[in-house]
Structures are given as structure tokens and as C-alpha cells.
Give the backbone structure.
Amino acid sequence: MFNNQVKVILYAQDVKKASEFWQTLGFVLISLDEIDGSLVAEVAMTETSDTHLVIYDRQFVENNSGEAVEPSPALIFSSDDVVALYKELKDKGIQVGEIAQIGEEFVFNFVDADGNYFVVSGQ
């Protein structure tokens, strides 16, 4: 049976830089390990979060895996105060899109260090 823990793989040009980006957003570093000469970072919203982002070096995976590196997944993060989070990310110099209202929810996107887009939705 499945449990509540979910790990989402992200590929990055620079694992350390990508990990630092997520930590800038308030994520915590769960682990930073070297595997066969390549860094792998795991970050989560909190130390007890059931969802973790595992960041692999894109070039390492492309060179050592028989399968192609998939594009980044489309992730939608939830927030109880979208406007405050938007302002916080903007103040930290994170590239953000405009806030839009869809029904009763607010939505915006932001870009990580590798140019991947992520969405935030909520009140």
C-alpha cells in the first residue's frame, strides 16, 4: 500500500544552487549527499512534511541513465495567504508572475534558478 510520503524529482543544472533557491523560499534541507560524484539534495516545506523535492544533477542523469530526463513536473503549491507569499517572494528577488483571481482563489507563478515555473494557489 502507498503511504502519505511523496517525493518529487527535479532536475537542475546546479544542485547546490537549486537547493539554496528552495531554502530561500523557506524549505528546509533534509539531505545533501554525493552519489557517484554527483550531488543530490532533498528539501521539504518542513522537517516533518510528507512531500519532499529531490534534486538531481540533470547532466549526471543524462550521462548515466538509459532513460531520458523528463521535463520538470507541473507543481501547484498551496498557500493560506497568497498575497503575502507573493510579496515575500518578490522581496527576495524571485521572479514572479502577476497575481490572478480565479473564482475565489488567487494564483501566481514563480521561476526557480533553472527557469522552471511553479504555481501557487489559495486564498
Remarks:
- The radius of gyration is 15 Å.
- Residues 11 and 70 are 8 Å apart (CA to CA).
- The domain at 76-122 is CATH 3.10.180.10 (2,3-Dihydroxybiphenyl 1,2-Dioxygenase; domain 1).
- The longest strand covers residues 28-35.
